[in-house]
Amino acid sequence: MNWNRNSAGSASLTGRCQKNERGDGVSPRSFLLGAGGPGRRAPVLFCVLLLASVAGGAMPQPIVGGAPAHLSNPLIAAAGRTGFSALDYITWGAYLVGILIVGLCFTGRDKGTSEFFLGGRRIPWWAAGISIFGTQLSAITFMAIPAKVYATDWVYMPAQAGIVIVAPVIVYFYLPFFRRRNITTAYEYLEQRFGYPLRVFAAGVFCLMQLGRMAIVLFLPALALSTAAHLNIYLCILIMGILCTIYTALGGIEAVIWTDVVQVFVLMGGAVLCVVIIASRIAGGVPAIVEMGMAADKFRMARFTWDYTTTAVWVVLVGNALACLVPYSADQTVVQRYLTTATEKQAAKAIWTNAALTLPSSLIFFFLGTALYAFYQTLPDRLNANLSTDAILPWFIVRELPSGVAGIILAAIFAASMSSLDSSLNSMATVVMTDFYSRVRPDTADSRRLALARAITVGLGLFATACALLMACYPIQSLWDLFLTLVGLLGGPLAGVFALGMFTRRANAAGAVAGLALGAVVVFCVHQFTQVHFFLYAGIGIAVCVSAGYAVSVLFSAGSAARLP
Question: Domain range holding 220?
Answer without folding.
Answer: 3-117+125-436+449-555
